[in-house]
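User: Predict the structure for this protein chain, please.
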Amino acid sequence: MNNDVVFLRRDESTHGKTEVVLRNGNTISVDTDPDKLLNQTLIFLGSNMKARRTTAKKVHKIKQFIPIVIDSEMGIAFFPLHKQTDYCRYYINSNYFYDYVDEQIVFTNNAILLSSLPESFVRRQYERALSMVDYQKKIREQKIKYDY
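Assistant: Here is the predicted structure, written as structure tokens:
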């Protein structure tokens, strides 16, 4: 998975498959759970979902609906719009989130995701993701300064 992914979704309308919506508007259906897709990406990068969630809980004091930072350098973070126990799963790439209007999440590539969630919740999730990416970027920059 790379930065071309706008959002991941699995719900009743996808018949148990995960839909990966890309920046160019194409949609790919896969049998893999969205959490497993993100975890496979993180494992490839030398981490995993459990480690990222544990870090977020300790550092950012977030207990649920934890955004997953894939790459802070590129600003790739996916924020969830579901509980961990929900069958329906939605992960939004914060790079492509544009607005939330009339129960629709609008993306920078003009894709739309219908959602009945409160606007304040969706915006808070987006802000959390941005905050986590920014924090990790600053930590990395500080580490680079002290390594030289």
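The chain is about 35% helix and 30% strand.
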